Amino acid sequence: MNARTKWTASDIGDLTGKVAIVTGANSGLGYETSRAMLAAGAHVVMTMRTAEKATAAATALLEELGEVSLETMLLDLADLESIRRFSDNFHANHSQLDLLINNAGIMMTDAHLTVDGFEAQLGTNHLGHFALTGRLLDLITATPGARVVSLSSVAHRWEPMEFGNLMFQNGSYTPRAAYGRSKLANLLFAYELQRRFEAAGADAISVAAHPGTAGTGLADHLFDRWYLRPLKKLVFLGIQTPRQGARTSLRAATDPTVTGGEYFGPSGRKEHRGAPVPVESSPASHSETDAGKLWIESERLTSVNYESLRTPTK
Fold first, then answer.
1. Mean of the pLDDT values across residues 207-222?
2. Name one GO molecular function term (predicted).
């Protein structure tokens, strides 16, 4: 398939027999990613933080799609205990995991901490998914051809890693910087996971994607002040719908030509919109030194160790 081909959900193919997890699936990109994979025949486990959101999303999809293989489970990526419970429950009911879509996230929030005391954006967007992937690793590596898809953003270019101040503990926090760092962490993780899959000889791949600019509701809180609300329509004028934004995740997850370590984004100017194609991430995202440091720190902070994946030879 040519990299510039206008890939769409109709190119997904038959996913019957595949088991997928999509985090943050109640709305936006996660909802649309789940919708497309359900329509293609996959059994999709949609994760949400509340039962109310789970019921609403499942009801809407079942009304639209009819008889599909849909399951909802509660998961809060800002809570390591919630991640452990989710993993235990998933293991109790499933013996395979073909697709893990690490989609959920928060964006440019005011400073606050997760349940476990982590800066919330890094804690949710990176550490939560690091812990989740690690706890599901046995099923991923036992499922032939499994894929882990990590969602990043053009914002990964905004802020470097600073391991002595990883969570802005020196008081330098800004919502923009913290979001950018969390998205850089997503890519460092995705590329390091691929290196470790290769070193271990695992029949699994790690890939990454970003949606460009899409009206998902992720940034709605930025317009909470009354005097900013009139700007919201202008800011989001002409941007992609969530269904369009989800195409990069879907291609990364399902295109048979995808290879481990690839990164997908929109084909248009500055990768804001367009067909899903392979794109380049920043030089910082390819730093094996930073990836190794982040991996060690992530294992320490989450107490989740990827024991079956040895450290790649540098």
1. 70
2. oxidoreductase activity
CATH of domain 9-302: 3.40.50.720
Residue type, 88: D
Residue 118 near residue 301, CB atoms below 8 Å: yes
CA end-to-end span of the chain, whole Å? 32
Domains in the chain: boundaries = 9-302
Taking only the tens place, the pLDDT of each residue in 127-156 is: 999 999 999 999 999 999 999 999 999 999
Q: In the 8-state DSSP scheme, what is residue 12?
A: S
Q: What are phi and psi of 180, to 5 degrees?
A: -60, -45
What is the tens place of the pLDDT at every residue in 32-91?
A: 999 999 999 999 999 999 999 999 999 999 999 999 999 999 999 999 999 999 999 999
Residue 67: burial class (beta carbons within 10 Å; 0-12, 13-18, 19+): exposed
Nearest to 132 by CA among 83, 78, 88: 83
Q: Cβ-count burial of 91 within 10 angstroms (0-12 exposed, 13-18 middle, 19+ buried)?
A: middle
Of 31, 179, 191, 263, which is the active-site residue? Answer: 179
State pLDDT tens for residues 274-293: 899 999 999 999 999 999 99
